[in-house]
Structure formats: structure tokens, C-alpha cells
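I am writing to request your help with a piece of structural work I have in hand. Here, with my thanks, is the record as I have it:
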Amino acid sequence: MRNPVNRVLGRVNSVKDLKKLAISELPGLSEEIRRFIISSVATTGGHLGSSLGVIELTIALHYLFGSPTDKIIWDVGHQSYTHKILTGRKNIFHTLRQYKGLSGFPKIFESKHDIYGTGHASTSVSAALGMCKARDLKKEKYEVIAVIGDGALTGGNALEAINQAGYLNTKIIIILNDNRMSISPNVGAISEYTHRIERTEIYKNVKESINQLILESGALKGKLLQLKEHVKEVGSPGLLFEKLGLNYIGPVNGHDFNSLFAALRQARNLKGPSLVHVKTIKGRGYAFAEKNKPKYHGVNPFNVENGEDLERANGATYTQVFGNTLIEIAERDPAVVAISAAMPDGTGLTKFRDRFASRFFDVGIAEQHAVVFAAGLARQGLKPVCAIYSTFLQRAYDAIVHDVCLQNLPVVFAVDRAGLVGNDGPTHHGTFDLAYLRHIPNLIVMAPKDGNELRQMMYTALQAGRPVAIRYPRGECHSATTGSMKGMAIGKAEVIGRGKILCIISIGDMFQQCQKAITVLERKGIHATLINARYAKPLDERIAEYIRISGKAVVVEEGTTLGGFGSAIMEICQEMGINAEIKTIGIGDHFVEQGSQEQLRKDCGLHWENIVNVSLKLMRR
């Protein structure tokens, strides 16, 4: 017997099934999908609020358009849960974000309906525009729809693409999912502009009054017509998009099927580029998510009844230590300011924002701007701390090089989520930062082994007077003390033990695994020198001397081995004429899939057992 709770959803296993439903059944389907997503994400964790907000929009799109012939691109991709459910993945949705399960983002290798991978924000319009021109050049016929929302319109990439869309004048449908949120509330002039569009009743009333006066007037008719045009210029909804060459439709209630169908049909029938402005509520249908949108943007497994996190950390996380330490330093140093790219909660800056409102800047999903903005602050004598996830900082690479390091400006990069982040998968793993940062001139690159070292590095970085990057992982940290802070010697490693036959070198949080491996090796009669490098740049030359003594070394890093920290060790040994056997343990030439951090570290060999095995093999040579 079919579960009565899923009376409609039980009949929908594909887009073809969806199209068989009567329009009157769609509101019921929406509510069943809403309950289904809440129940599933409560078990697996995931991006809850954004997915709940686009259920009706997703159903309407798949009902009216013909995916995968018609191309639907989701930006940011964590809005795609309903899309996955409707495109044949409902019965495996319980594997979402799990090891070897469904991705939490669109993935072209997962389904023909996932037209484009969108783990980072603001890329959909560019990709969609490329597909439109490919369609035109090949003389094919299909629609291309970019659904951009959850703050993604604040990214420069999206605005660059909209600029070209108006110029090319090809047929494209851009749907702005306007929920006034990214992870935290949206900021910036564009967000404020779309919000002002909501308040167009005043404009409508004024326009109607002027029309009535025109009908009743005689001599003043000409002046009133001019006034009407002026009011239209300053108050018309969507004026910005119209001026950029887009047909503007909206605002539209994104939870009402009649409104959605009317707007989407209009966009489908228009020539050239169109933008459909859809208003949605993030977290729609789950009270906890509606009331606390930042908290329920991305969640661990939780209790549906009370909304409580079932995997709450027992100890302090690196992110929390960073945030608390920055406040402590800022209390004493008024030059310290903090910058976030739409993620004050995720980067631990919420308390800083609340304590120092005038010294905190959220620039939206605009990482390159965040870095250049920080450079401007630093040029005028302030001490900006730019807190951005490792994977998102990649988007600002040019600015790090040319705007900060070339000018040797004292910007501190707090590189959160360095290494393997877990279930968000390959778009979010911070595995490349050591490789893409360590070769930039003037930049100091640090990595703490624990919370206490992070505190000392924060203090040191803000006193250095030059560019500094501190990279640290997601999750709980060791030794999260709240004691005094003092400057560290830049470029000096920590050396533990004086074994003469083997040297094990770690950087960052990998120290804990190396320490366990050393203990096991000692039981086997192998006494090794353990080095906590602390700095990927400048590199402590004593490390090379210890390798010279032992002749054998194992280097462990939670990052790519191609051009990473291990490469730096080999380079310095070569420069110093040291001929030694060096084995690197890290992430090879591949993207790491999703799974728990523990599972992925084992898969990549970043575990004490593998460090022991590699060391033993090296010793047998």
C-alpha cells in the first residue's frame, strides 16, 4: 500500500511522471517533497534552507520545460535537492553527501539532468550564455535556464555575464531566486536594489494617480506626461536589468504556481535575454529554518522535532579559536579589521561583527573584491584579516598576487577549511592552498598544529607588517588554550626528539597523526625525529639538516603533493646539495570525493597507520 504521506511523490520517479500530474496536484507534491527533504537531511546533513525555498520553482521549471534537452543550471548548486528528487534520484536520496553517494551539488557525471557543476557561486549565467551561443552556432533549438540565487548575484562573475547577455541579445532565461540570503543576509547595493523592487506599490499608486490627472487635465497634460516618464525612470521595477538589455519579469511569488507558470511562459515566449525575478523564503515550511536562516543553511544531522544538532562538537573548533582570538587582539589594537565574503558565521566572525560593527565588512560572494578591498585598507594603515575558506580563496588568486603580495601589503589571510572538509566533496576540499600560496613572493605561509599555535600565529601575523596566510582545517582542534599570546619566530620549526635514522616532517593538523606514528615506531625500535614545520614559507633550513643526518624522511601534508609542502622540502634539500630518500604522503593528482573527514584521510593515507607503514618500507630500503 502506498504511503499516504507521499500520495503524490510516491507516483513521481522521473520528470516524465511529473508531467502526468494535474496542476492541482502540484501544491500537494511540494509539501510532500518538503517533508521528504527535511526528513532526509536530518539524517545525512546538508544544505537545508536553500533547498526548501525553491521547491515550487523547481517543480514549475521541470513541469514546463523539457530537461535534459532544455538546460537548467542551478547556482549555487546546493539549491538542487528537489531537482535531484524529480530527475530519478529519489530512491537513493538517502545517500546524499555520503561516502560514494549522491553529491550535494549538481554533478555532470551523476545525471544527464545535471547540465553543469556548480559548487561555487555566481557561475551559472556565464555557463548558460556559453551554451546559448553553442546552440545558436549549431542551429539547434532548446531553452537554457540559469537559476541564480542564495546570494550568487553579488558575485562579479554573474554581473560580467549579465553584461554580455544584454549585449549578445541571444535567448536566455535567467531566474533570480531572491531570498535575501546567501548563508548570512545578503549585503550590497544590488541586494538592496532587488529589495526595493518589492516596494513598487508606491510606484503603481503614483502612476495610476498621474494617469487619472492626465485624463482630467487640459493645459497641464504635457507636463504630466513628462512627470509620468520621470517617475517610470526612477521607480519602475527591474529598471536596472532593462537598462542592461534584459526583459524583466516580476517580482513573482516563488511559492505560487499560478504566478510562476505565468512568468515562466512569458519568458519562454519572449525573444532575447529575460530575467525572471522570483521571491522565495529560505527555509520555507520548516519553522526552525525560517527563523534562523544562517544556522539552517548547512546542517549536520539534526532532530526534526526540536532542530537540535546531533553532532555538536565537544571541544573548540579551529574556526572558533580564530574568531575568539581575533576579538581578543582587536580589543587591544584598533587598527585590526575583519572581512568576510558572505560567510561571517562559517568563518567564525559573527561575534567580531557584533562586537566591532564598524570594523567588520561583509562584501558578499565576491572573494576577489574582498582581497582587493583588504589591500586598500592595508595601504592606509589598517590591519585587515580576510577570512575565506581555502577553496573559495582560489577565486581571488590574481588579487592575492598583484594587489597584496606584489605591493607587500600587510593583509592576513585566515584560510579556513584547509585540507579535506568532508561531505561537501571535491568543490569544497581545501587541498591546493599550500601549492598555490607558497610560491608567491613576500607571502608568509603558516599552518598551526593545534588551537594554541593558531593563537600565537594570529598574534604573530598581525605584527609581521607583510602578507601572511594562516591555513587551518575544519573541525575540532587540540590544545585550545586561552592563555597569553606572544610572537613566534618566523620561519622556525618545532623539533621533537633527536632520532638519527628517520625524520618525519608534518605541517599543520597532520602533526597529531605523525605523533601517533612516532610512538608506534619507537615500540618497533625505530627512533625518529619529529618536526612540526609550522611554516611552509619561509621554510626552516634546519629541516634539511635533520634530513641530511638521517638520510631518510617522510613528509606528511593534508594537501596536494604536486607543488605542495613536500615539494618545498625536496627543493630545499636539492638547493643544499642533500641526497636523501624522501617519501611524501598527501593527496595525489586527483580530486577527492565526498565522505567523512576520517574516511577520506584514511583513503588518502593521511592516517598514523599509513605513516607507520610508509616509514617501515622506507627503513627497509
